[in-house]
From TrEMBL:
Name of the featured protein: Hydrolase
GO cellular component term of the entry, any: cytosol
A GO molecular-function annotation: magnesium ion binding
Top-level taxon of the source organism: Bacteria
Length: 280
């Protein structure tokens, strides 16, 4: 069955470690996929303002951006869907997160805005300059606006295993929420009904696309929810090993632009028989 929906994570999946990708090659593949009526979506833990600059101006309006782990969907500068947390829940979560000794930053996101506290720590300043460079700063986390927050993020000098342990503690304390880790140092928390999988489901319903016509690529545990929404669930070779358990296929790595390799095969071999070579 022909693929009609392609969804990609960005960091360590679509992008190389230096935040680049083969733009010329992607342009050709994207144009060919669009000509066939295909839908292309970016599902990322990043805020929207840290996603759109990767794509050229003529392509940008044609891409669905599912930022904040899929909880804020936008296309051509138009907000299409969002899933916000109850303000009282945000308040309880802020108090809960304050217990972690290695916490360096608690960030709140609304999709198009992010809130943070000032820090002189070089570690925090570097991370914020890369991922949250348009943040609005408040002296105390308790002063953050509560309305419209769709995700909370914990930034700390945690190892991946420490991240996963904290993630489990949050999930036990807040059964209505989903805590996920996109990798070392970060934990993202949002409504359990949300996540990247909910963004894929939104697009599938909007375009009447079946799971059998959908493919997704990711590398971290915050990609896990979208893998259950597609037939062709692809983990990068450089992925968190736990993600392999949720995927049917394992492709090459991000440095070699493996996502573009598979996109090219989708266009030249639309029956998808080539995917057997990637089966886990």
């Amino acid at each position: 069955m022909t693929i009609r929906l392609i969804t990609v994570d960005m960091d360590q999946t679509f992008l190389r470690a230096d935040k680049t990708y083969d733009k010329d090659r992607f342009r050709k593949l994207f144009s060919a996929f669009e000509d066939r009526g295909g839908v292309f979506a970016v599902a990322s833990g990043n805020a929207y303002y840290n996603l759109d600059h990767y794509f050229e101006a003529d392509i940008l309006p044609k891409i669905y951006f599912c930022g904040d782990d899929g909880n804020f969907i936008i296309k051509d500068q138009k907000k299409l869907a969002e899933l916000s947390l109850d303000p009282d829940l945000v308040d309880r979560l802020i108090r809960f997160l304050s217990q972690y000794e290695n916490t360096h930053q608690v960030i709140a996101s609304t999709g198009d805005r992010t809130f943070a506290t000032p820090s002189d720590d070089p570690f925090v300043k570097e991370k914020m300059s890369i991922y949250y460079f348009q943040s609005e700063y408040y002296e105390r986390v308790e002063d953050y606006p509560r309305e419209g927050v769709n995700r909370m993020t914990l930034l700390g000098k945690f190892s991946l295993e420490e991240n996963k342990a904290i993630m489990d503690e949050i999930n036990r304390a807040f059964p209505e929420l989903e805590a996920v880790t996109p990798g070392d140092q970060w934990i993202n928390i949002y409504d359990r009904r949300g996540g990247k999988g909910s963004a894929i489901a939104y697009l599938q319903e909007a375009y009447q696309i079946k799971a059998e016509e959908s493919i997704a690529f990711g590398d971290s545990l915050n990609d896990r929810s979208m893998m259950s929404e597609v037939k062709y669930s692809c983990a990068m070779d450089n992925a968190d090993p736990e993600l392999f358990e949720s995927c049917t296929y394992r492709i090459g790595n991000n440095e070699d632009q493996a996502v573009l390799d598979v996109m090219e095969q989708i266009l030249t071999e639309p029956d998808m028989s080539f995917m057997e070579a990637y089966r886990i």
